[in-house]
Write a structure and sequence with these properties.
Blueprint lengths: L5 E2 L5 H10 L5 H11 L13 H10 E2 L4 E7 L6 E6 L5 E9 L2 E5 L3 E3 L14 E4 L2 H15 L3 E6 L9 H12 L11 E5 L3 H10 L4 E5 L5 H7 L8 H15 L4 E6 L7 H14 L2 E6 L13 H10 L4 E3 L13 H7 L1
Helix pairs in contact: 1-2, 4-5, 6-8
The structure holds S-adenosyl-L-homocysteine (SAH).
Length: about 350
């Protein structure tokens, strides 16, 4: 991006402190600024307990952006809210606020577009444009919370994009959203979903975070997985499973393996058996996803209850993902796709 000024919402409190010190300000100002940023202010003028001169100084030195609401859809069925936000460079990102009995979770995008090219995914058609900054990911959370009036208690990085391809900004975002003086969302209330980038998973294991790692598996054998996900040609299932086993050993956090069930492609009894074997090896559990149909795609959903039954017979821990917001295109890149066509 062309911005010359540094984006202030991407800064951690200790960085903010150093920056303000360089501007000749006392350290406590950093705490004030950070807490305003975490409240979702859209301009420095909203930081009412700062002297006007300091607000001006900050405005000259830093960029403080706020997304603009392009579209909002509320599900009549379950209260799910889907947002399409316009970023400062005109690109659009989508995120979804989902309400559960235990709290509300926001599903955010980590990139504008995606370059992974999975056959079943609506995000694929529009290609990849750019990574989001940590501050922009935080904006998705803050402004969705502000607009919906719903207190956000969890975050899932399962929107558009591959988070481990935007590793540094995603990690920075996690630190910001987890910060006690920020939104203070616990790592155990955060999930990160990857298509299976082995080097990224290995790097994440070293951070030893208590978040939930979800790995999009979608097939238990290479030949099928390669048909669905180009990334499978780069890392075969054996390599991915070794990496996942190491991740579990290192973090003691069980991995959730996502499996979108597609009739005639990955729903055969033999595939349930193979999948069960992989789960025994990695100590993971399966999150079966009812396939969301994408316009123009020939792929058809399989019978999740039946397949879940086969997995349970093999002793696999399995959950079936609830379909929230099905009436508002809440699934996987569908809103941005509609807007773009
Ligand atoms: N790039 C990351 C995160 C984004 S997608 C990843 O691949 O995991 C979040 C999840 O939704 C992934 O498991 C993805 O495979 C799944 N998904 C994408 N399109 C889908 C569809 N049409 N139906 C069901 N699940 C889908």
């Amino acid at each position: 991006m062309q911005d010359e000024k540094r984006e202030i919402r991407s800064l951690l409190p200790e960085e903010l402190e150093a920056e303000l010190k360089a501007l000749g300000e006392p350290a406590y100002r950093a705490g004030q600024v950070f807490s305003w940023l975490g409240k979702g202010v859209a301009s420095f003028d909203e930081m009412t307990d700062l002297p006007a001169a300091l607000r001006e100084k900050l405005g000259r030195a830093y960029l403080l952006s706020a997304p603009e609401l392009l579209k909002k859809q509320v599900s009549a069925r379950d209260g799910t809210v889907k947002y399409l936000w316009r970023l400062r460079d005109g690109n659009a990102v989508e995120c979804v606020v989902m309400r559960y009995s235990y709290g509300s979770t926001v599903c955010i995008s980590s990139q504008v577009g995606c370059r992974q090219g999975c056959a079943f995914c609506a995000s694929t058609g529009l290609g990849f444009i750019r990574n989001l900054s940590a501050g922009e990911m935080l904006e998705e959370v803050l402004f969705s919370e502000k607009d919906s009036g719903v207190k956000i208690t969890g975050v899932v990085l399962m929107g558009i994009g591959e988070p481990l391809e935007n590793y540094d900004e995603v990690l920075r975002f996690l630190r910001l959203v987890n910060h006690p003086r920020g939104l203070n969302i616990g790592m155990r209330h955060i999930s990160l979903s990857t298509c299976g980038l082995v080097p990224g998973i290995r790097r994440l294991a070293e951070e030893n975070l208590q978040l939930t790692l979800s790995v999009s598996l979608h097939a238990p054998e290479d030949v099928t997985r390669r048909k669905l996900m180009p990334v499978a040609a780069k890392y075969d299932i054996g390599t991915l499973m070794d990496c996942c086993t190491d991740y579990f050993r290192k973090t003691e956090r069980r991995i959730s393996f996502e499996y979108a069930l597609i009739r005639g492609v990955n729903d055969a009894p033999r595939q349930a058996e193979l999948l069960a074997g992989l789960m025994r090896r990695t100590h993971g559990h399966v999150n079966l996803i009812p396939l969301n149909r994408v316009e123009g795609s020939p792929l058809v959903p399989g019978d999740t209850r039946k397949f879940a039954g086969l997995l349970r017979e093999q002793g696999v821990n399995v959950t079936i993902r609830r379909r929230l917001g099905a009436d508002i295109d809440a699934a996987c890149g569908q809103l941005r796709r509609k807007e773009a066509t």
